[in-house]
Design a protein that fits this description.
By secondary structure, this protein is α/β, with parallel strands linked by helices. It is built from twelve helices and eleven strands. Helices cover 31% and strands 19% of the residues. Strands 6-7-8-3-9-10-11 form a seven-stranded mixed beta sheet, sandwiched between helices. The chain has a four-stranded antiparallel beta sheet with strand order 2-1-4-5. Strand 4 and strand 5 form a beta hairpin. The structure holds iron/sulfur cluster.
């Protein structure tokens, strides 16, 4: 396929040196939600239908690495993260955290591992309890996990987490309620709440999409600093390819429950191969208006994840589909023999 518009990439395009055991390894992860049958369907004994939220997703993440899961709403990004954290039961596949397969682990064994992986939610207006002061919000996870020592020791940890999240001096914020904070400060409190347990992995679900543009860069730089200075692995969900290109080491593009393209951020953004990735990139605003290319608007809506199209699931919207695409499901392959993999018959 031919060259596509170039988007700025960050300085972090280089791959992180591989460790013996990845911090997070996801293999063939499948999450299907059963759809409740209506009376007529039950009487007619029609087979139970399923929402194909995640349909065979594989990737790995090292410590100190940031990976972006990119795609439109409903493509399965959030379900992937919820399954990794055990909030949703996996239908099949494995999720290995620091060498331990956590799919199906009983809650008693899962509990200590939950401190290894923490979640940052999209909406800081909803993720903080409006009745709690900042000190209570950040202390709460320690109380749930029964760690942190005495009250005084816990307060020191709360102060440390707030300062690590960029709220300095922390004492200024300890006794505030969420309504006394700006959107950016609320998201930093939410991040401090995740950091207070000392996680190795941070899963951030659209961490800046609800924030004003003026504070987004600050929160993204904070996440970038955490992976660099605290050696944390970060899996960031975003629908914004330009954010992913600037901050992530790796990008995985998802469509209808599958990864359709994956590789280093630099490769995926500068040399996109899948028609869906190319369409997403065509609508990313360019810094230089003279570089602006014609946006490629995809026809139709994302198909119903209950009735997944035959063959390549992107074929009803693909501008270059051929007959083979309707019949044959393309596997992820590495056309250049490197870690840039694509699921498309024409690549
Ligand atoms: Fe388009 Fe066919 Fe490639 Fe699917 S396999 S992305 S339908 S060209």
């Amino acid at each position: 396929m031919s060259e596509t518009p170039v988007v700025e990439t960050g300085a972090h395009g280089a791959a992180t040196p591989a460790a013996a055991v990845p911090l997070l390894e996801v293999r063939d992860l499948v999450t299907h939600y059963p759809v409740r049958r209506g009376l007529t369907e039950a009487v007619a004994r029609r087979p139970r239908r399923r929402v194909h939220a995640v349909d065979g997703v594989s990737f790995s993440l090292e410590q100190g690495e940031m990976m972006a899961l990119v795609g439109e709403s409903g493509c399965g990004k959030t379900s992937t993260v919820q399954t990794i954290l055990g909030m949703v039961k996996a239908t099949s596949g494995s999720v290995t955290l620091n060498g331990t397969d956590i799919v199906g682990l009983p809650d008693r064994k899962m509990r200590p591992l939950r401190r290894t992986a923490a979640m940052v939610y999209q909406d800081p207006y909803e993720s903080l309890d409006p009745r709690f002061r900042v000190r209570q919000t950040v202390e709460e996870p320690m109380l749930v996990h029964g760690i942190g020592g005495s009250r005084k020791e816990r307060e020191l940890l709360v102060v440390g987490a707030l300062e690590q999240a960029g709220l300095r001096p922390a004492q200024m914020y300890l006794d505030r309620h969420p309504h006394e904070l700006s959107g950016g400060q609320r998201q930093r409190v939410a991040i401090a709440t995740a950091l207070v347990l000392g996680p190795k992995l941070l899963l951030a679900d659209e961490p800046v999409s609800m924030l004003d543009v003026s504070v987004r860069a600050g929160v993204l730089s904070l996440l970038d600093g955490l992976r660099r200075e605290a050696d944390m692995g970060i899996l960031m969900i975003t629908h914004d390819l330009s954010t992913a290109a600037h901050f992530a080491d790796k990008i995985a593009v998802m469509y209808l429950g599958r990864i359709v393209e994956q590789g280093s951020a630099r490769e995926v953004v500068r040399n996109p191969q899948h028609p869906y990735t190319r369409a997403l990139l065509s609508v990313v605003p360019k810094r230089d208006p003279r570089e602006a290319s014609k946006p490629q608007i995809l026809a139709g809506e994302t198909p119903d994840p209950i009735d997944v199209p035959s063959g390549c699931r992107f074929h009803p919207r693909c501008p270059v589909a051929v007959d083979r695409c309707r019949a044959e499901d393309p596997a992820l392959r590495a056309p250049a023999g490197n870690d840039h993999i694509v699921a498309c018959h024409l690549v």
